[in-house]
Amino acid sequence: MAPTYEFSTNQTNSSPKDFQEFDERKTGVKGLVDSGISKIPEFFVHHQEISLKASDQAVPCDLQVPVIDLQSIDKDEASYKQIVQEVLEASVSWGVFQVVNHGVVKDELENVIEKVKEFHEGNKEVKEKLYNRDQSNKVRFLSNLSHLQSGAATWRDTLVCVFDGTLDPTQIPLVCRETIMKYKEGISRVVEILYELLSVALGLPPDYMKARNYDYTKPMFMHYYPPCPEPELTIGVRMHTDPTFITVLLQDDLGGLQVLHDGYLVDVTPVPGALVVNIGDLLKCFSNDKLKSTEHHVLASKRGPRISVATCITPALDSEKPFGPLKLLLSDENPPLHQEFLIPDYVKTYLSKEPNNSVLSYYKI
User: Fold this and answer.
1) Is residue 13 part of a domain?
2) Is residue 56 over pLDDT 90?
3) Are strands 139-143 and 96-100 parallel, antiparallel or unpaired?
4) pTM confidence score
């Protein structure tokens, strides 16, 4: 029998206690849906995002997130240069693009989506045992990664696997373990290609980013967005920029991801076999703001569930090397726009920052 829920719904008397009670159930947003609710609890209502969605205007038909085909990357020099130019233009103007023919076949991508769905819809005891907010755990399941920072919950549950060289694969739930490990290897190869293209696009040697271990840590967030009875009142993911170097996202065919571009909320329309690449705040800083880290969010929907897998690529999170705008890219005409900082301090700032603020705003010169 599905549990019953007695949280306040669509009222103004929500409290942190409401969310605590929800969290202690360890059944996530899916547990709410399975209980048969027709109204969402008040602590899921996002007044700011509701206003943003309500003010959205019709998007001009020519505003479409760039799709870059990597198939001819090894064909000849002219083809390679063309792809580099497309990556540069997309990173400067959009901060997000999709790549196809990247080396991970469509069947493998579809299998990842299916296995992640199986986990989220599978054994409740397995999920309850993994449910926790201790960030030292390399594998964990939870709902709302940063609720305490934001004041309002988001309509999604997440399985987290932190690939930093120390993760024991046997900790990953059996139902999706083999698939996730194989996908991680495929994404690692895609990241090598992207780092090469981005390095060359910035006028650097092809191995520049890779040689500096800027892909050391690869936390993978496997999101599950259940169908929502009142999607107009809440959000799947609130508006934000990624704190990463880059983020590589696999999304299913339902859509819901939107990026803010030229004042418009533009749909990142799912493309079969594609991966979405977001420029993160760290790469924006590294390029001295030449590359754009774009704001984006994910809508809640009555359709669902929606599945996505975000792999966040960053330097080692315990690195003691100063990080900031790359000196090779600076000049009298292009002075640094951000202070240097240590990655551990950057992470602490991210975890304690005000909602909807970019981490980089705290290091702006």
Assistant:
1) no
2) no
3) unpaired
4) 0.92
